[in-house]
Amino acid sequence: MELFVVYIAGEDCEGLYNLYFHNCVDDYGSRVTLNVSLVEENLKKNYLSAGEMPLPALYFMMSVLFFMAGIFWMFILKKSKRETGVAVFKIHYLMGALVFLKSLSLFFHSINYHYIQIEGSHVEGWAMLYYVTHLLKGALLFITILLIGTGYAFVKHLLSDKDKKIFMIVIPLQVLANVAQIIIEESEEGEIVHTTWTVIFISVDLLCCCAILFPVVWSIRHLQEASQTDGKAASNLRKLKLFRHFYIIVVCYIYFTRIIVQMLLKITVPFQYEWLDDMFREMTTFIFFVLTGYKFRPAVNNPYLELAHDSDDEEMDIPMTDSGLTEGAVKRGYKAKKKTLKEIVLFDPNEDGTDDDEEVLLEKRREASHDLD
């Protein structure tokens, strides 16, 4: 058994180091079998690298921040339901569950890194809790984005066939992406399985992120067509504007977390600042949650939650006639508009029954129609 130690004497020598073993095969084709036990330790018995030392505290603080945001969200739902009487849908509670699940995932992740920091390896129980919550959080995040993007429970109460197909494709792929990420974290960089699952994770995750944009685009197209045909242009245009904002938010979230953080920051930042990748990713996720919650919160003036008050069945006040006989009387309901023309002529006080000329009668009908318009 051979033991060798590499000691970094000063900060000018610190950096990332690699250990290589090369077997020079002779003419007889000799083979070497060996077991390597590698211990990497920083000052004060810290087994994390310089770029990972702040991660336990970072994950814990973000866990507390997400938990407080979840409490505030539940307070908003409770206040909206009891005091303002605004409709609170099941998807609102699903959004709250996602925030709490994200908080639990970060909390278990911080504990997992804490044991790695002091012992050099994680405790399987805490690691398993983190992997389970991380897997559920990843699937629930994409489910929530898909439900909001399709307008489910807000605009429509049934998913179309295209929406169901997107769910059947995206959710299993997202589960696969999360499993791939877990395998990556449990394997060493030098292993072949690490490289293979890294490619799988990046490819599948980007594919899922692109797929969840289709329901939002379909909703935008549907609202554009509806605003020109069903007579509720103002309401649909407000919803259309909100969907476009949501689309931009999702695109920015995907672009920053998948492109900027995972690819560019890891390459450009020095090794001792690798924790900035995780900080930017979690802060971006928090901002995405806050903006989504603000856009689709239960509120009276939220166009996404507006009832179809422009519908043909809505009651409205229509004057029956301008004559003194029925002054102040109103006819409720949309169907009253067609009856009013007849009633105006029948109860016209200027009509004394002596003038039966057809042209006079048609003129009175045209005047009445003009007044209603």
UniProtKB/TrEMBL annotation:
<feature type="compositionally biased region" description="Acidic residues">
    <location>
        <begin position="349"/>
        <end position="360"/>
    </location>
</feature>
<keyword id="KW-1133">Transmembrane helix</keyword>
<dbReference type="Pfam" id="PF06814">
    <property type="entry name" value="GOST_TM"/>
</dbReference>
<feature type="transmembrane region" description="Helical">
    <location>
        <begin position="246"/>
        <end position="267"/>
    </location>
</feature>
<dbReference type="InterPro" id="IPR053937">
    <property type="entry name" value="GOST_TM"/>
</dbReference>
<keyword id="KW-0732">Signal</keyword>
<dbReference type="GO" id="GO:0005794">
    <property type="term" value="C:Golgi apparatus"/>
</dbReference>
<keyword id="KW-0812">Transmembrane</keyword>
<feature type="domain" description="GOST seven transmembrane">
    <location>
        <begin position="54"/>
        <end position="303"/>
    </location>
</feature>
<dbReference type="InterPro" id="IPR009637">
    <property type="entry name" value="GPR107/GPR108-like"/>
</dbReference>
<feature type="transmembrane region" description="Helical">
    <location>
        <begin position="57"/>
        <end position="76"/>
    </location>
</feature>
<feature type="transmembrane region" description="Helical">
    <location>
        <begin position="196"/>
        <end position="218"/>
    </location>
</feature>
<protein>
    <recommendedName>
        <fullName>GOST seven transmembrane domain-containing protein</fullName>
    </recommendedName>
</protein>
<feature type="transmembrane region" description="Helical">
    <location>
        <begin position="88"/>
        <end position="108"/>
    </location>
</feature>
<feature type="region of interest" description="Disordered">
    <location>
        <begin position="348"/>
        <end position="373"/>
    </location>
</feature>
<dbReference type="GO" id="GO:0016020">
    <property type="term" value="C:membrane"/>
</dbReference>
<feature type="transmembrane region" description="Helical">
    <location>
        <begin position="166"/>
        <end position="184"/>
    </location>
</feature>
<feature type="compositionally biased region" description="Basic and acidic residues">
    <location>
        <begin position="361"/>
        <end position="373"/>
    </location>
</feature>
<feature type="transmembrane region" description="Helical">
    <location>
        <begin position="128"/>
        <end position="154"/>
    </location>
</feature>
<keyword id="KW-0472">Membrane</keyword>
